[in-house]
Amino acid sequence: MKMSGDTIESLIRERRKTEKESKLLQAQIDRLEAERLEKDNAGALEELNSQIEELSFEKREKAKKLKDICRIARTISAGD
Fold it and tell me: Cβ–Cβ contacts within 10 Å for residue 69, how many?
């Protein structure tokens, strides 16, 4: 069962890394949204909206990855 324990540990490390990346993405989104409130130039607003949408997509992908990591960990744990 040592191998499944190592696998679980690596999944935990990957989960923590992904959670950290997700939090950083959210901080960037929050910063851009605050900056968007200060802008009155249509071009600048469009650029900020584009950046926010891109970061939001990345954050959704991180959420999917976290869900998959947790599902895999549960599956491995259930087999122990």
Answer: 20
What are the pLDDT digits (tens) for 52-75? 999 999 999 999 999 999 999 888
Query: Model-level pTM?
Result: 0.80
Distances (CA, A) of 5 to 12, 46, 67, 78, 79: 11, 48, 19, 12, 11
Q: Encoding tokens for residue 18?
A: 């992904």
Can you give the three-state secondary structure of 25-58, one letter per residue?
HHHHHHHHHHHHHHCCCHHHHHHHHHHHHHHHHH
